[in-house]
């Protein structure tokens, strides 16, 4: 299934995107896409419910806003430098184990919402990433069992302010958690929709120009390793997001470095996970 949420900010309703692209309203199912839904086999229950109720579900108009395709999770855990070429363009060593940092959940916005360059920013940058949505509580999970703890996958633009991230003292989170810096969606594809998350094309364009075009087959640490590794240090709850890192082609790595400016349009996609588009605006 493709899980989607639609409607005005703060009033989103759960939906499902059908194979033909039609979105149906499944709010009559009685549950939003939250921790309780993912942790109590909500995907299986919704699938069963749709067998007898799909025909009565209202169709959602094409022009309705898409929201983040799940409610606010307990955390967003990100993996840095998970593609060798990206580590090189950032001038950093290839890590011996996953580099972890947190992204604020207040950064979450819908897949086509505007991205706001934060106050005092001069180096806001783009990052297309495959994100994992946890489906079952995960603590000290073995790599062989990691997939059993995943609900699905989703497209994420890990927008980053490089001066805040790298040039200021402290942790990377300063440059990662700004408002609107986590466009997610359009939908969560459940695990049965994605045959191999470690072999997906992912790409990003700025104003129509291809900047990133790579594959998750270039991961340093694959999906199973990342889930297992993170679970050794913290409990992952249903609905938590893990963002698995970005390939080469970010603005920081260009010669000279190039950063987002008001009016820029970011368009990005991952094989099987749809496309999102964000207009960049200045902070007011």
Automatic annotation (TrEMBL):
Residue stretches making up the Fumarylacetoacetase-like C-terminal domain: 75-278
Keywords: Hydrolase, Metal-binding
Pfam families named in the record: FAA_hydrolase (PF01557)
GO molecular function annotation: hydrolase activity
Transmembrane segments: none
Superkingdom as given in the UniProt entry: Bacteria
Range of residues in the leader sequence: none
Annotated family: Belongs to the FAH family.
Protein's recorded name: Fumarylacetoacetate hydrolase family protein
Source organism per UniProt: Algibacter miyuki
